[in-house]
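Per reviewer request, we include the raw input and output of the structure prediction for the construct analysed in the revised manuscript.
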Amino acid sequence: MSQCTAKKAWLAKALTIINADFNRSSDTHLIKVELPCFVGVALYLKDESTHPTGSLKHRLARSLFLYGLCNGLINQDTAIIESSSGSTAISEAYFARLLGLRFIAVVPLSTAAEKIKQIEFYGGECHRVEPKDIYAKALLLADDLNGHYMDQFTYAERATDWRGNNNIAESIFAQMEREPHPIPTWIVVSAGTGGTSATIGRYLRYNPELHLNTQLAVVDPDNSVFFDYFKHRDATATSTKGSRIEGIGRPRVEPSFLPDVVDHMIHVPDAASIATMRWLEGILGRKCGGSTGTNVYGALMLIADMLKNKQQGSVVSMICDSGERYLNSYYNDEWVAQQQLDLAPYTTQLNNFMRTGKLQN
């Protein structure tokens, strides 16, 4: 067998393995959140934590591997390198193990220990560096090992088929078909790479009847530049601090974040994200991660406006990952105190919202 034929045979096998894994996976559940104040409105959370690797990033990792394989960037000897705050690296380590490939994650020093353990569980290696160094270190490793830098922050928006093919947007609308308000008034997501907002925003535009009736809102945490970039379009904007809400928010404008497909952006303080995440545990009976808190706080802000204006409709957001990954940070009172975050005002605000439908400070 020639070298060329062997490479093609390996590629065919690799694609079969990934597609078989996809075929074994069911769609993620869409949870309806019930609150006393919801009159004429409904909140739904798409539970992405139920993917095999426990987060929304499972979709992205699969797409990035397929993109790399079909573009000839990954073969049977390729070391895979990624810069990640954890969840994408966990999912990519899973797929790398399926294909028998070496995987190295370059992660910030602050990455939750639970995430490091998961990356290593799937056979991945971790290089912990200062947040400002993750891109340069990943590129250096890829060059030294003659490997492939997955670069989720560049390729997320192009690796996913935004026209359909069971992407997250198509799945949401299919699951909403039998609900009282099947076409959401808002879809609310957070941005790490920007890939999810790009996929949903493009899908809405590709289906004009949806685009006319559904708006896309992106929520952004502290120490992230996406919100300012959306307002001012300054692509050189940077932040000297990394995001405390792992998986979302970036200190620089990433190529995969497409502001022109976003209708509205909301800045959510980190204290609000963490308070909402903890508050949500009492509603759902389970722990969710910090980015879920960011999503839900933004969704509740929009619902409060809908209730104020006596507007009926539905709002869809998502559970990005499980809170079990953050027991030593977001669910740890000592960690919260060290971060000088005061959750009490937001907890009071959320409890009042349950009764009144008003989200006031």
